[in-house]
Amino acid sequence: MTELARAGKRPGNVLEIGTGCGYQTAVLAQIADAVYSVERIAALSARARGTLSKLRVPNVRIKHADGTALAEVDLKFDAIVVTAAAKFVPPEWVRLLNVGGKLVMPFAVGGSDSQILTVTTRTENGSRQEQFEAVRFVPLLPGLSSER
Asked: In CA terms, which of 17, 90, 93, 125 is 20 to 30 Å from 81?
């Protein structure tokens, strides 16, 4: 996913939807100028924030937020990496990309059991999609969780 997001060049701003434990966040921080990551589960975002702080990863910002509700975000990104499978590409995610930016995500096809890694590239006139290999991720869920 990181290589597909990078597309042969160093991205400026990267948005990660689904921080989890922060592993992918740390990897993205090595190839990007800045990583903005959102996690819907409070305990996971706190854990990742602590881990990345201990590792002294300076170019990461983690927020406990709903990755499916980013309408008010006004930053633009060179890449968006989604670590949960969605049934469709939300138009607001494509809007957040710079022209030429890549949205890398698992796409649920037909049902939650069948997923394919998909890259959506923002173009001057909209977007185009490429499909890669079969993958298996948790489903993308809306809302916030304060689970500890």
From this structure: 125
